[in-house]
Write a structure and sequence with these properties.
single chain; 329 residues; mainly alpha
Amino acid sequence: MIRFFSGNNPLNVLILFFLGILIKLPNFLVPVIPNETVTDGFLYVALLNLLRHPAIYFPLLYPILSYLLLFTQAVTFNGLVNRQKLFQQPNYLVAFAYILLTSLVPAWNVLSPGLIINTIMVYAWPSMVGLYNHSKPGGQLFNIGFGFAICSFFYFPAILFWILLIAALIIFRPVVITEWLIALLGALTPFYFLLVYLFVWDHWSLLPAMFPGFRFRIPSLHFDWKFWVPFLLLNLPLVVGLYFSFQHSGRLLVHVRKSWSFMLFYLLTALLMPFLNNDGGYSQFIIALVPVSLFYASFFYFPRKKGGPGLVVWLSILWISINYFVFHG
């Protein structure tokens, strides 16, 4: 399976689509209706309210929407990685890794703020790493800052993605004050319009819910086999993939090496967010799966012998199947 997706055959997109449906079949057989939590942003709550009535008559709406988001994120991010030439040969391993990883934990297949945020981040990442190639990136910086502000309306801790924008400016651009001001303007514009709305309609009572601040909380962990199996299946290949990716990136062009390093910074930032304003679950950790899927793909791509990566794939599919029989069988 790894060798199959190591190629650049466009037919892989269609095969991945149906393979993803097969892997995530339990989510379609027993649809999960997402519930509001106190940590959800107001845009996410508004989206759930919009979907609630049609979902009464068509509960498959939630898993279909979730899968379409996951699949488009996987294929889009894969194409952007190939365009940035982070691997020597274009392939579909990043998309395959993303579909596989999001199936390890049932909460990652449910419509959530983190799942929606990943769509914005998939498009923001190439814009950030591509800053080196723009003589006048003002419009691009404004759009990135604007998009990150919208992310915080779905899940407030996503405001920390502004740190990524600052890092991108430092890594990929010389220091130009006007560019920093444009990025800041883009980041503040959605908040300006939001405050105007609250003022005009006199909804100041909603302000604490829209800007809840930060609370650090460790998710509720149960150190049983249901925790350790996906934990090891996710983290051991991630560590190996990190080693291979940075060993490989040393032989690449400077801007590609910076892209790999920037992705590691993205991973560390995304891993911090789910501990802020956490509702006790694991759902928001999906925010980290975009960078994780890239390093996971490195674990598939770089080793000459594919026995170990192949074993991880089949063990992951076995775990996903066990989840199906235990909880839905």
